[in-house]
Design goal:
Number of domains: 2
Number of strands: 13
Largest sheet: 7 strands, mixed
Helix content: 40-55%
Shape: globular
Strand order of the largest sheet: 1-3-2-4-5-6-7
CATH topology of the largest domain: Rossmann fold
Order of helices and strands: EEHEHEHEHHEHEHEHEHEHEHEHEHHH
CATH class of the largest domain: Alpha Beta
Radius of gyration: 20 Å
Strand content: 15-25%
Length: 356
């Protein structure tokens, strides 16, 4: 799968992602490839899919190293996006004159939790020419807890196309709600992401159910869907809409008033940046890189994880101050997270990496 865009600093780039699911790391890699050029391949077929990305080795784990090695042989640099890709790319490029860059997606303190796991990660990442962290706290964790020298670390946040996500007019909001089958009137709260255990969407469901007449829209797929549907049926009083996966997140954002993230652990979620680009406040847990996106009390509200009551209060405040928060959120995210600007940081990084 080839993407248009300039080749990174005149080099052929191979981007490796974990799966074909339309999740944050995968969509970020595709968006980056569209800006700097290169080929994107996935290790496995996703449970939900949604991305038109070819599979390395037919998606069979025992074929990954040979397939990635063959593809890397035709590239000048490889970018491994996410923890699943790190050991595969590190092993596949042994002996090749092809450097690789590891793009760390989540919070290393949340997943490198045992001595054995940290040892495996240190071994794999020792072969990387550079490690890109999404926020300063993650970079510090790589340096202090996983031994990556500061000179091999660079912070490049998630990037979002500021032209694709923008504040919607009243007419656009009504059209988006009609398209999604949502109430024409009343507050709409959006929770968008993988339906996995660490996202704790059960907390979002309980929080929104504590607010009068607000509708929660849940967009995404994952292993927790059945459990969340059961919870929504028991406590939601018809105010929880499970819409499944979408390839058009801008429509869901246009229909909404607030975006909520209730995760126990996060990296730098693109949905929070997309919300800001769309002029929406964010109510979220204070985990990962969310404090880098949400300006506390000005573009949204952050709370401790696992507390539905606190999250409900945060959503209520965002609804009350939505217009002012939304304007500041758009200005903040457009200035700091526009992918057009961040692509230049990637180009400069790749230009400085030695090959051969």
């Amino acid at each position: 799968m080839r993407h248009s865009g300039p080749m990174a600093a005149g080099r052929r780039v191979l981007h490796v992602v974990s799966s074909t699911d339309r999740r944050g790391a995968e969509t970020a890699a595709v968006a980056l490839a569209e800006r700097i050029g290169g080929k994107v391949v996935a290790l496995a077929a996703g449970a939900a899919g949604g991305l038109d990305v070819p599979l390395a080795g037919g998606g069979r784990p025992w074929r990954w190293p040979a397939a990635i090695r063959r593809l890397a042989g035709g590239a000048d640099v490889v970018i491994a996006h996410g923890s699943t890709t790190l050991p595969v790319v590190a092993a596949a490029t042994v002996g090749l004159p092809v450097p690789f860059v590891y793009r760390s997606i989540g919070d290393p303190l949340a997943w490198a939790t045992t001595a054995a796991r940290r040892a495996r990660v240190r071994l794999a990442v020792s072969r990387a020419s550079a490690v890109v962290a999404l926020w300063r706290g993650a970079a510090a964790a790589w340096n202090e807890h996983l031994g990556v020298p500061a000179e091999r670390l660079q912070v490049i946040p998630n990037g979002v196309d500021a032209g694709r996500f923008r504040p919607s007019s009243t007419a656009e909001r009504q059209a988006a709600r009609a398209e999604l089958g949502l109430p024409r009137e009343g507050a709409v709260v959006l929770c968008m992401g993988a339906l996995s255990r660490e996202k704790r969407m059960d907390v979002a469901i309980r929080a929104v159910c504590a607010l009068p007449e607000a509708t929660l829209v849940v967009v995404g797929e994952g292993p927790e869907r059945s459990a969340l549907e059961s919870l929504a049926a028991s406590v939601g009083r018809g105010r929880i809409r499970m819409l499944g996966q979408t390839g058009r997140p801008e429509v869901a954002l246009a229909a909404s008033d607030v975006v909520v993230l209730s995760s126990d652990t996060e990296g730098m979620p693109a949905v929070a940046i997309e919300a800001g680009m769309a002029g929406l406040p964010v109510a979220a847990t204070r985990v990962g890189g969310l404090a880098e996106i949400v300006v506390e009390g000005k573009t949204g509200v952050l709370v401790e994880r696992g507390d539905p009551a606190a999250l409900a209060a945060a959503v209520a405040r965002c609804l009350e101050e939505g217009s002012a928060m939304g304007r500041l959120a758009r200005a903040n995210c457009a200035e700091r997270f526009d992918i057009a600007r961040l692509a230049h940081l990637w180009l400069n990084l790749l230009k400085g990496i030695n090959t051969g």
